[in-house]
Amino acid sequence: MVSSFLAGLRVKNVDLVWGTSPPIFQGLTAWLLARLKRVPFLFEVRDLWPSFAIAVGVLKNATLIKMSLWLERFLYRHADRVMVNSPGYVAHVTAGGARKVELIPNGADPDMFSPLDAGIVFRSANQLQDKFVVLYAGAHGMSNDLGVVLEAARILQSASSTSNVTVTFLGDGKEKNNLQSQAVQMGLANVLFLPPIPKTGMAAALAGADACLAILKPIDEYKTTYPNKVFDYMAAGRPVLLAIDGVIRSVVESAGCGLFVPPGDPAALAQAVQILAADPLHCRQMGLAGRKYLEENFGRSVIAEKLVKVLEEMQAHP
To answer: What is the CATH number of the domain that holds 71?
Structure first.
C-alpha cells in the first residue's frame, strides 16, 4: 500500500485514478492519490472483500473485521464511481454507500480460443487420448471445494459406465498438496494433477477437455460471483459443469451451455459427468452454444466498449 502510493505520486498528467479490490488496501491508496491529484477516483470491486473472507473463515479477528468493513464502506462512499464485474455485487455496494455503480462484467477474448481444436497435443502430452476429460482449471484453495470433486471421482471410478473418465486438476494453491494426498489415500486412479501454466497455454489445455468444471463452496456469498473461468470455458467451446449457484448459473442456463449441480453434492456432480460422458454429441452442441452466447454478450471487445464509455464519461463529468 505504501510503495504503490509513493510510486503513484511520481506519475504525472493523470486524468483518473483507478483502484481495485482485492486487496482493498490498494483502494485506499488510489483514493488518496486521486484526491491529491484532484482527479476522479474509480473504485473497481472484483471480489466482495471482506465479506468472502469472513464467510470462508479466513478473516476471524473481530477488530480486523470491524476495521475492514469500515474501510470497505469508506471507499464505496468516497469513490466517484464504483465498478463491479458481476450483477450480484450491485446491491451490496449500493447498500454500502456507493453513489453510482457501473457493471462491467467479466468475460473472455474469443480470439484466444479455437472451439474446433480437438486438443490432441494436450491429450497426447498427458496420456489422455482415449479418455473423457473433465478439466478443472484454476486455484486449489479453501474456497474451491475440490474435496467434493475427489468424492465425485470416487463415485465415477466405481461405475462401469464412466471407466474412461479422467478428472484433471490444472493449477496450484494452498490445498493442492492435501488434495493429492487425499487422492492417493482414496485410491483414485481416475484423477490427474497438472502444474499451472501461463494464460497463453490455456487454449491448448481447454481444447483437450470434453467438459470443464467450475466449483465453489456452497455459501450464499458466492451466489453473487461471475467466475472468470466460466467465460474462458465458454470461449473455448466446452460445456460447463457448474457447481456454483446464483448469477453465473443464470448465464450458463441462458446460454444452454452446461449442467448445473448443487454445490457441495458429489453424487450430483458425478451424475452430471455421467450424463455428459454418455452423449459426446450433445456435449459439443452445448459447448458451441456457449461460445456463441459469449461472443454476443461477454466478448472482450463488447466489454471494452462499455469500459471506454465509463472512463470517458468520468473524465468529461467528474
So the answer is: 3.40.50.2000
The HSE-up count of residue 269 (CA atoms within 13 Å, CB side) is 30
The pTM of the full predicted model, rounded to 2 decimals, is 0.89
Starting at the earlier edge strand, list the strands of the sheet with 191-194.
191-194, 165-170, 132-137, 211-215, 240-243, 258-260
CA distance 171 to 108: 19
Instruction: Give the Cβ contact number of residue 126 at 10 Å.
Output: 17
- Domain interval for residue 92: 2-107+299-316
What is the three-class DSSP state of 281? helix
pLDDT tens sequence across 100-137 = 999 999 999 999 999 989 899 999 999 999 999 999 99
The 10s digit of each residue's pLDDT in 233-256 is: 999 999 999 999 999 999 999 999
Residue type, position 97, single letter: G
